[in-house]
Structure formats: C-alpha cells, structure tokens
C-alpha cells in the first residue's frame, strides 16, 4: 500500500525498523503507479543485498509510457551491473502499446525489425509511420511482415499506408486470417490494388466464424480460396444455418452425411430438420451416437423417428459413458451390457444403478 500510494516516509519507517523490503514486485508497482521517488528509494535502500528482476520494472514503465522513469533507469546500476541490459527487445513492447514518445526515446538505444510489424499488427499507424521514417536501415521494415500483420488484424488505414510506401505484399496466411476474422473491407482493398494469394483456409475460416459476406465475396472473386469439401460440415458444427442455405445454392456437391452428424453432436435441431427437408445425404450411426454423447434427447427422438436404422447398441453406450441419464432412460430399449460397464468405469452412479435395476438378467 505504501508503494502504490507513493508514501516514501512510510517505506523509510519500515526500513529503519528492520523490515526487509526486497520483493521485486514492489519496484514494478512503483513504476506502474508513476512514483519515481519510490523507485529511487527502493533502488537505494530496498535492494542492497539482492538485485531484483529489473526487466519487469522496465516493461512496466514502457507499458505505461513513463519516459522519465526509463531515462532514470538507464543511468542507474545495481549490484549486478548496468540496468541497460534489461532493455532487450523493449522497443517492440512500446510499439505494441502505441507510446510514440517511448518509441522515439528507445530508438536511440537500438531497434530490431519487429517493432514496425508490432505497430502495424495493433493498428498504431502513427507509431509505424515514425519508425519507418526514422530508420535509414530498412531491415526493421521487411516488406511482407508489417503488411501481413495489418491485413490479418483488419487495420485498413495501416494497410493503405503500407501499400503506398512498401508495395503492399503480404503472406497468403495473412489473407486467410483476415477472412477468418471477417475483415472484408481490407480484402477488397487488397484485391483492388494488387494481386494477392489465399488458400482454402480463407473460406473455411469465414464459414466457421459466420462471415457470410466474406464467403460470398471469396466465391465471387477468389475461386482458388474456395473448397466445398468440408464447408457444410463446418457450418453445421457451429449451427450456421444461413451459411448452409447459401452453400446449398452455390456448392450443392459439398454436402455429406457428416453435416447432419455434426449438427446432432452440437444440439442444432433446426439445422437437422432443414437438412432432412432439403438434402438427401441423411446420416450414419454417428448422428445418434454423437447426440447421445451430448445428451440431446429431443434430437435422439427425432432421429429415431426418421433414421431408426442408424441406432446401434453403441448409441446407449455413448450416453452411459458420458453420464447422460435421461438419454440412457429413453434408449433403454436399445441397451447393451457394455453400457452398464461404461457407466461404472466413468463413475456415473445414477446411470449405473438404473441400468443394473433394469437389465434383462433381473
């Protein structure tokens, strides 16, 4: 409390009365609280015998943008030598937190190529522009990495600026990530300004996260990014019915029985009914098995009505093994001895007792 309040007098009293003040976290708290006088006092009184991990205090100062504390730290030494060794890769941290004054100050003490990339990744355009303009050595500004970071995270202003000064090349995986994150405007800008590459992971990621407009755009202008083999199943896993309806129109060949199975396992009843009405793939025994695992009783009942041939003894085993008591009760007509053992092995006492009481042997 004394450190966070900046109470040097109280710290002095503790020290004079024999209390050891050596916790390295105290220095970090003092820096984070912007109490430079406490930082100075701790360095002069609190750490005479053992040196704390100063690098954490340095990082705290950088995260908070406290240039005055950083300047003082570089002039100090503890019992193991200069504090300057604790500034390794700190410029990256400053760039990530958009502290331009700290970036400028640290630039005099060394920079590596990751600082520009981190500024671009987090959308700190002013910091990125200053780093780029201040460096004669462009090894810190490798073409692809900053643009890739900006694209993947959807920072359109950074993408536009990097395109102007660096030509805008980026890695295919960055475009895939932009699609996954739904950054359609960034992808459209890239498409207008210069060629770019993406993979089928772009469409898969967009479907998984429900970005229908990105899916439509990729289908319209970037066919190499589209693969229909698993899209319906991916949408079913997440319950993306609007996407499945669109895929039904544009990728009719991309459906399989695994779509209904994925929907059953995740409890998406509306999804299952739509597939049953509009598609002909049906399902395998994996659908009731997965529904039983998850305890989706209404889905089990519906599947039994429409796909009773897919129910096997292992369906009840799956419910028993996962402690789905209500599902076990309903599936009792399809019970198996293995279900009793599965319930016992997995510690589901109520399920075990029910099966034991109602087993055919009496």
From TrEMBL:
InterPro entries from the UniProt entry: Ankyrin_rpt, Ankyrin_rpt-contain_sf, SecEffector_AnkRepeat
The protein's name in its UniProt record: Uncharacterized protein
Domain of life, per lineage: Eukaryota
């Amino acid at each position: 409390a004394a450190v966070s309040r900046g109470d040097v007098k109280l710290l002095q009293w503790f020290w004079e009365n024999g209390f050891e003040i050596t916790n390295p976290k105290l220095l970090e708290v003092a820096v984070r609280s912007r109490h430079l006088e406490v930082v100075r006092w701790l360095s002069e009184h609190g750490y005479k015998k053992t040196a704390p991990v100063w690098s954490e205090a340095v990082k705290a100062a950088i995260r908070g943008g406290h240039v005055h504390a950083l300047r003082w730290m570089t002039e100090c030494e503890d019992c193991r030598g200069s504090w300057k060794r604790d500034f390794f890769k700190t410029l990256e941290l400053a760039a990530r937190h958009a502290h331009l004054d700290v970036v400028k100050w640290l630039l005099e003490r060394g920079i590596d190529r990751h600082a520009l990339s981190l500024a671009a990744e987090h959308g700190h355009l002013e910091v990125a522009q200053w780093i780029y303009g201040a460096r004669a050595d462009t090894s810190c500004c490798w073409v692809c990495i900053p643009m890739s970071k900006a694209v993947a995270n959807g920072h359109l202003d950074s993408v536009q600026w990097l395109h102007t000064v660096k030509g805008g090349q980026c890695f295919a995986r960055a475009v895939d990530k932009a699609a996954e994150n739904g950054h359609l405007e960034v992808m459209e800008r890239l498409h207008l300004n210069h060629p770019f590459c993406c993979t089928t992971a772009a469409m898969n990621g967009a479907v998984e996260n429900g970005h229908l407009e990105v899916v439509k755009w990729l289908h319209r202008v970037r066919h190499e990014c589209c693969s229909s083999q698993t899209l319906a199943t991916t949408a079913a896993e997440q319950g993306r019915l609007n996407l499945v309806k669109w895929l039904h129109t544009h990728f009719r060949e991309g459906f399989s029985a695994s779509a209904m199975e994925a929907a059953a396992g995740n409890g998406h009843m509306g999804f299952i009914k739509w597939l049953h009405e509009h598609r002909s793939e049906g399902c395998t025994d994996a659908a009731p098995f997965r529904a039983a695992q998850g305890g989706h009783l209404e889905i089990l009942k519906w599947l039994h009505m429409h796909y009773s041939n897919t129910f096997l003894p292992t369906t009840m085993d799956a419910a028993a093994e996962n402690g789905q008591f209500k599902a076990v009760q309903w599936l009792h007509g399809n019970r198996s001895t293995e279900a009793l053992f599965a319930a016992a092995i997995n510690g589901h006492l109520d399920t075990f007792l029910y099966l034991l009481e109602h087993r055919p042997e009496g």
